[in-house]
Specification:
With 242 residues, the chain is mainly α. Helix content is 76%, strand content 4%. Keywords: Membrane, Transmembrane, Transmembrane helix.
Length: 242
């Protein structure tokens, strides 16, 4: 219809009509592109909001795991400290045998490192990070994922050291394995220990010192992770509340 009107106007040399028809065509195209852009923007905003909700849930879990790791490794660091202090004290028997055996039982326990955000990694692999419209928030996500990846490597190294030096402790311990009410084995507890052999072994205290230092290293790193993760989680909370 429009082409027919333009052809007629050209035959009649009605240049005003020709110009008007071209303006109508161009305006229609522009409006069409604008409507498409608005629709795409609304879709992207909805997708961004959904991703931010999922990211917040991920980082709530990461924050919880990090807090638990700090508590666990702090307890293990303090347990190693008490064991070393008693070994060096020369006292014949610990004042509280049950507490000493509890420290020996816990020194080689560990916890899983805080996970990386599955939502962030999904977005990264799919090339969807640009959906996070705020460049500062996007940069925070990238930096914290890199921090968590670095801690994974730190954790693997410290765990290897713990396994190696734990041999100096385990050779002097006898564990009692028990089943819990559900039939799942409980964490093995130390039932007996050879105090004289611990004190006689010149490698025992250096090995304990290395274990303690590894636990302290984990605490240091996890505090760094927690500070960054808590800041990001609070930022995501604010975005959701807007």
């Amino acid at each position: 219809m429009i082409l027919a009107r333009i052809s007629k106007a050209i035959r009649e040399q009605n240049w005003f009509a020709v110009a008007l028809e071209f303006i109508i065509v161009i305006a229609g195209v522009v409006i069409g592109f604008q409507v498409t852009a608005w629709n795409a923007a609304r879709v992207n905003q909805a997708r961004e909001a959904a991703y931010i909700e999922r990211l917040r849930d991920d980082f709530v879990d990461i924050e919880t795991t990090t807090r638990g790791g700090i508590e666990s490794y702090t307890e293990m660091f303090e347990a190693a400290d008490r064991i070393m202090a008693f070994i060096e004290s020369g006292e014949a028997e610990p004042a509280d045998d049950a507490a000493f055996r509890s420290d020996l039982s816990s020194i080689l326990l560990g916890t899983i490192p805080p996970p990386r955000s599955t939502t962030f990694r999904e977005m990264e692999s799919a090339g969807q990070l640009s959906l996070i419209s705020d460049p500062e928030l996007r940069e925070m996500l990238i930096e914290i994922d890199a921090l968590l990846a670095r801690y994974d490597r730190v954790f693997a190294f410290v765990f290897t050291q713990q396994d190696r030096y734990g041999e100096y402790l385990n050779r002097y311990l006898v564990y009692q394995d028990t089943l819990g009410e559900s039939g799942v084995p409980d964490v093995p507890g130390v039932s007996r220990y050879d105090l004289a052999a611990m004190r006689a072994d010149p490698q025992f205290l250096p090995a304990m010192s290395t274990l303690r230092r590894g636990h302290g290293f984990n605490v240091y790193w996890l505090h760094s992770v927690q500070a960054e993760v808590t800041t990001l989680r609070a930022e995501l909370d604010e975005r959701i509340a807007e």
